[in-house]
Amino acid sequence: MLESFKESEILSKDQYTQELNKLRTQLIDAQYEFKKYKRPMIVILTGLDGAGKGELVNFMADIMDTRLIETSTFWQETDEERERPYYFRYWNAMPPGGKLGIFFNGWYDRTIRRALESNDDPEAFARGLEEAADVEKMLAQDGTVIVKIWAHITKKEQKKRHDKLIKKGKQSEEITKRALWYFSKYEKITECAEAAYKATHNEFAPWEVIDCTDRRTREIHFLRVILDNMNRALKGNMPKSRTENLSGLSFPDVLGSLKQHKETDQKTYRKELDELIDEIKPLAWEAYQKCISTMIVFEGWDAAGKGGCIRRLLRAFDMRLSKVTSIAAPTSEELSRHYLWRFWRQVPRAGHIAIFDRSWYGRVLVERLENITPPADWFRGYSEINSFEKHLSDRGVHLVKFFLHITDDEQLERFKERQEIPWKQHKITDEDWRNREKNAEYKDAYNEMFFKTSTKYSPWKIIPANDKKGARMEVLKHIKGSLQKVLNK
């Protein structure tokens, strides 16, 4: 990419004016057409210090409708960002569908900066690029337009600009010092850029190198890149998922082999439940003091008792530390972004606890079985979910996933009970009965989910839940042991 870099031919003033007038109209037309597009366009603008990246974006703002553009700089991490996985800040800044987002340096910033500042080991650098490629592919296959621009100038040109900067003497000492530091790292920066290009330049997120030596040339090139990629999406030329549903495969029948327990004695239940609650409370506060955040997922059959387990858990967690999120159908705002966006935004701050009644697993469950999502998209969900949970694990998030299992006969009894008892009638709907007709299909989907998403860093804990009281105690016992384990690491 940069090894064979040659400065672009400089545009004359007449050529520039003619091309700019044409692009101005084309870009506005494309922008208003792109408003209807279901996903955003993200431009990762990075490159060499002094190349004029800020000037390019300011120039673009004079040409295009700024109401449809969001710019994110990602300078200093906030306290909230530092307490969460690295990619939280980028997911949080994701613009809605139909908008253009400019990410200065984007998710490559940390990977390249570490290599410059601490001579990060090659394996860590490669992992950083791998993570970037993984996120880009995930977004692109969902329809987000990802374009990466490297703003380039030669070392001679950079020195010329830095000398001019110093000579002016109008900049602060800090800015001057920063410019000189980047100049001293020119070779290392271009080496990192070359490696990033080779590892992550693909159909999902291509790189574009812009020669920023001449102002007019770089401006026209930049606008062309924006226009070409916007049109690429509008014409339906986005990369398609090559992952298809593989029919005919069977997975271990985890649920079929699970043994249900006998009903727990009420006196034993009361005594042990109170003891578990008292034992968990100090552990939750210790996790808060040690800045260990917790995410607890509840999945399971309708009427399996998820709500009852969550209520008992909340007795053990101070309400100031915990939050329950019930996952319903996505809003229009959520539908305009990748489905994981709303879950990234729910990652708790350090020391806090997030409890999910249903979760991101809806992608491979209800969206699959209700034909809400095409097979190629929900099938991709397994790897996307594993990637999300790996980000959480790498950041030290304590993630626990429960599945509450009841038999068909037990579910039928609970459905009837809900119909008969006045204060439980709100829990049963026609949709619950309709879903029950698909129990065999759901069972297959659950078994496939366990097989593909129970990992070393995020295993499933399957709870026999015909006995409600026993299930609640087993959930609390597991939380207690899990917290003790992470606190003693």
Structural description of this entry:
By secondary structure, the protein is α/β, with parallel strands linked by helices. It folds into 2 domains: 13-234, Rossmann fold (3-Layer(aba) Sandwich), CATH 3.40.50.300; 266-487, 3-Layer(aba) Sandwich (Rossmann fold), CATH 3.40.50.300. Helix content is 52%, strand content 12%. The chain is built from 20 helices and 10 strands. The protein has helices at 13-34, 53-63, 79-82, 88-92, 108-118, 122-141, 155-168, 173-184, 186-200, 215-234, 266-289, 306-316, 332-335, 341-344, 366-369, 375-394, 408-420, 430-436, 439-453, 468-487, and strands at residues 41-47, 69-72, 100-104, 145-152, 207-211, 294-300, 322-326, 353-357, 398-405, 460-464. The strands form 2 sheets. Strands 2-3-1-4-5 form a 5-stranded parallel sheet, sandwiched between helices. 33% of the residues are buried. The model has no long low-confidence stretch (mean pLDDT 93).
